[in-house]
Amino acid sequence: MKRRRFGSPGRAVPANPRTRQRTSKVLALLAAVTGALLVPVTATNASAAGTSYYVDCSASSNGTGTSASPWNSVAGVNGTTFTAGDSILFKAGTTCTGQLTPGGSGASGSNISMTSYGSGAKPIIDAAGATGAVIHLLNQQYWDIGGLELIDNASSPAYRSGVLAENSSGGVLNHIRVHDMYIHNIAGYGGGWYSTNAGVGVQTDHTTPVSTWNDVVVENNTFDHVDRIAVAVTPDADGQGTGLTTGTVIRNNTMTYDGADDILVVKNDGALIDGNKAGYGGAKSTCPPSGQYCNGASAGIWMSGSSNTVVQNNEVYCHINGADGTGFDVDWGNHNTTFQYNYSHQNLGGFLLVMPPFTIANEPTSTVPSDGTVVRYNISENDGSNSGCPTSGTQTHGGGVLHFVGGVPNQSGSTSAIPQFYNNTFSVRDGLSTPILYSRSGTSISGALSFRNNAIFNYGSGNYFTTTGSSTYSNNLFYGNHPSREPADAAKVTSDPEFRNAGNTNTSSSYTGKNAYQVHPSSPVIRAGAVIASNGGYDAYGNAVSATATPNIGAYNGTGGNLLSNAGFETGSLSPWTQASGTASSVTASNSRTGADALTTAASGSGANQSLTGLTPSTTYLLTGWGKVATAGETLAIGVKGFGGTETYTNVASTSYSQAAILFTTGSSSTTATVYCWKNAGGTGAGYCDDLAVEPLSSATNTVTNPGFETGALTPWTQSTGMASSVAASNSRTGTYALQTAATASGAIQTVTGLTSGGSYLLAAWAKVGTAGEEVAVGVKSFGGTETYLRGSTTYTEQPIFFTTGVSNTSASVYCYKNSGSAAGYCDDFTVVKLP
């Protein structure tokens, strides 16, 4: 099965793993041996449907299985053949030693149940190191097992499982449900076969015709220190045939320290793997004796030889296996696999492993490339490293956020041959070298993929592979470092995405949680994506994703908590904006910055207002917006008034979209404000506004000292290298003083401290030059990301820059710098504030 060709050197990997002993025979023998050591009872058949049988292993004497006279060992259960509607009840707070091999099957609508009675802790079934399963069902169906604690610990590994349901009937068996269990310390082979080394294993044996299952449900269980794997729904070996198990649901389980993998389905159709949380797996690779199946590689959640699998809402973290080690894996021979809404972090091999076709003896499906793979609305944080995890591994095959073993699997003739990666968020912290696109085959690989609307926040140094096929890269955000093979993307965005709390800033947990990757309303990713058909309808946070309206870039499709409505005019109409006085403005399907529509003013004295209500008095808000003018030299104002303070605005004079950022504080009794876009009088061309946003700030503290140089001195600013700058009592924007540079190679810099690592900040400052055609830059550097700056013109122009500190950075250096020219440059009114 999975990746056997990557086994450790010297480890035997058989061509045919079926040379191992038949598991059912071994289990039957062990059950017989174990039963001989227990109190003997007379085997009985349940004579009436709906009978309840009671087990109290703390009872001093063995009874008849009634509530008044319970059995006091597992022997009573093992000696009974149960029928539809029966219940096997273990007393809460007790421990039974041994293995359970109950007989009988339920019927459709009338299952046999095994659970607990009474109050207290879950009853424990402890197999005490015996080989085989704690609970074994062979060719039985319609069983519900729940509310128990299972243990089978030992100093040496062997074939051990918590629950093993095995089908060698040559037909379809129905309904196995395992729920609300605590299954731990199952000492199986970390490198051995799957279902027979599992917390819950549902297995089909080699038969002709093929045996399969229908309606397998594993939910709400807790697994800890299970070797090899928590949940496996698989055949008993490779080459089992083409029959597919149906109706598998694995959901809402918690798994920690699994020896190898966490969840696996093989030869399934329509499996749903939903809402599971798995961490710290992959530490063990001990294999069975020579000549039996051996695979030391592992991943968190994966599938092979399966169709129509949906993997969603899962969290996999800190997987430490060095051979694969990814959170998720689409392995060989799969068709139409969808990964969506998952959160992956700190997995050694990366977020997702993608396998090419290859040859497994007796398994023709392995030669079929997986097709129809869709990867959407997932969040990967610092994958490719175990940094911050309590345990770690060593990579033997490298790692990458998207980790390809070979080329991209493209199935010839498939209607969905190229894998689709869209609207994912991938974050790599500073100090890591994890590639975003990685292949073990090198930096240029065969095949092609589609890569659209993804947000890549790359403070690391990792690169990308290229493909020999015609891959599509469109409307992605590439922020941070830009390595040499970063894909060409004509519609890419390179500004800070303004995540809420990017990076590993929560020191108590070493990761942020997926909510950190929602964005602020001023984010450049909002409405900057491309429409994708059949997009699933929802993002990672439950926000709707339209089939026709322009989406965001990344896994979040909300508005960021924007207090403005119709902020991008994407309804195609003005409401709830209203006409400002003067010549009417309109919403047009042209000159938009993002999406399809924008506000278009008339040439002179024209614009639109929106009234905000329900604001909080004495609170600072941030207004941002984008504007441009059709005619050079004219101006457009983005501003706010009626908030209990002095009207404030920023003039935009650029013929290409530039951003304005305005802080305003409501009066002590003010709960309203009016936001506007206004084309100033005297012009001859239209003005345009798009993507306006208002959000409250939790703190408006300016971290820059002497931000307007009003002390009349430079301190604590320091001279940049080159010609000296000075503080001048002229050319100020506000107040008396401003920073004046020399004509060339001159400026000043200040390091602001006390910032939050992984925090999103706004730097706003104003700059101008004395001579047209020259430039003075306002910028920020040494914050953990890539230096960013904007340049001013001959009139004071605001330079808003959003930046995110790295996980090891609590300071940043802001500056004003004139690089070259013949006349001075000027800067004034620096502000650095943290976004909430």
Task: Summarize the structure in words.
The chain has 836 residues and is an all-beta fold. The chain is built from two helices and 64 strands. It has a 15-stranded parallel beta sheet that branches. It has a 13-stranded parallel beta sheet with strand order 5-8-11-14-17-20-24-27-30-33-36-40-43, with no helix packed on it. Strands 9-12-15-18-21-25-28-31-34-37 form a ten-stranded parallel beta sheet. β59 (776-781) and β60 form a beta hairpin. The longest helix has 14 residues, at 23-36. It is elongated, with a radius of gyration of 32 Å. The relative contact order is 0.06. Mean pLDDT is 92; it is low at 1-48 and 504-509.
List strands and helices in order, with pairings.
Layout: H1 23-36, E1 44-45, E2 52-55, H2 75-78, E3 80-82, E4 87-91, E5 95-97, E6 103-104, E7 112-117, E8 124-126, E9 132-138, E10 143-146, E11 149-152, E12 160-167, E13 172-179, E14 182-187, E15 198-204, E16 212-219, E17 222-227, E18 229-235, E19 245-251, E20 254-256, E21 263-266, E22 268-269, E23 272-274, E24 277-279, E25 301-304, E26 310-312, E27 315-317, E28 326-330, E29 338-340, E30 343-345, E31 350-354, E32 374-376, E33 379-381, E34 402-404, E35 420-422, E36 425-428, E37 437-439, E38 444-445, E39 450-452, E40 455-458, E41 466-467, E42 472-474, E43 477-480, E44 578-579, E45 586-588, E46 598-600, E47 606-612, E48 620-629, E49 636-641, E50 648-652, E51 658-665, E52 673-679, E53 687-696, E54 718-719, E55 726-728, E56 738-740, E57 746-752, E58 760-769, E59 776-781, E60 788-791, E61 797-798, E62 801-804, E63 812-818, E64 825-834
